[in-house]
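**Folding the chain**
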Amino acid sequence: MEQGFFRVVSRAGFLDLLRRFPAVDAQRLPISRAFGRVLAEDVAAPEDLPLADRSCMDGFAVRAADLFGAGEGSPVQLARVADVAVEAFPEFTLAPGQCAWIPTGGCLPAGADAVIMVEFSEALAAGTVEMRKAVAPGENVMRRGEDAKSGEPALRAGTRLRAQEIGLLAALGVTEAAVSARPRAVILSTGDEVRPVEARIGPGQVRDVNSHALSCLIEEAGGEPKARGIVADELDALVAAIKAALAESDLVLLSGGSSVGVRDLTMQALGRFPDSEVLAHGVAMSPGKPTILARVGGKPFLGLPGQIASAQVVMLVLGRPLVRHLCGDRAAFDELLRPMRRAELSRNLASKHGREDYVRVRLESRPGRPPLAVPVLGKSGLLRTLLDCQGLIAVPADLEGLYAGSEVDVWLI
């Protein structure tokens, strides 16, 4: 095989390739176990939510037309004819000139179309209430079906179930939902110099950091990590390890063995699989140029750099969106949903034209001003650059750097 990278794509092009892989199969789970999962199909509302017009405030149910022109200097008096109980539907109808006390969550009686907050009312003698504010129809009222309409989708497929979505399902009486299973991601570490974390090591040897760090990032993205240990720099051993990993996974990640060198055997190993296709060997980003993307047996195979800091940055930028995509998350690649912080760059920052450069930064607070983004520079093999940073800034591929004082968006990690 010729030495050198081929099929080098842009970071955006790499993400487009990731989108080609289908989500994993669905399973039905009770909503008590569905937090963080992604809906595999629409959930139709079995009933209206709320079931009736309900008050958002403690106050009085009124006909909005009765309070037209009401104010501090021109109060309106209405007859208090009833009190609404929060747990029962009122069996009476409000006539013009009448009102009824209503608690938060109480159902509006027929004839009422608004609620005036208790703060703008004053009880007078003989069951009369003085109102000192005009209200519009629908004011302080949750309309029937405003949260969900019976028979219509309450939540769409591809929605990640957060606490608020689980709350909506509970409110609708939905006890279980079809969600994507957690994609199984097998992690292989390669290198004759790599040792288990419990091993005593000597000069030239390193402990297996990537299996553990990548497992955390996979789990955080909604996947099920399966670290399968260290594979020696030997072609047959690597082929056997990849074959075993494919048999028990939806995604295989291999750290190390993706760059160009005598011991980098990943490309040769992939060539041993007749149903494999290399989609990209190299991505125009730094760190991460050696990254490999292949399809093997229909499953994604991601070859990550062996350097620990590089592997984690690539996993954040490319790997984590892939895991979320396999979960069925339709927003997996939406960068607008990244936690971002606007900051000011502390120093000039050089970058190589033609690649997207991800620079680790720490944030320094400045009262009354945007925080300062201070680049944390260091070798790709140093963990300290990740420990000391709070985020990443991306230098676009069409720039040769950024100037001190530039406003930058910091991706918090």
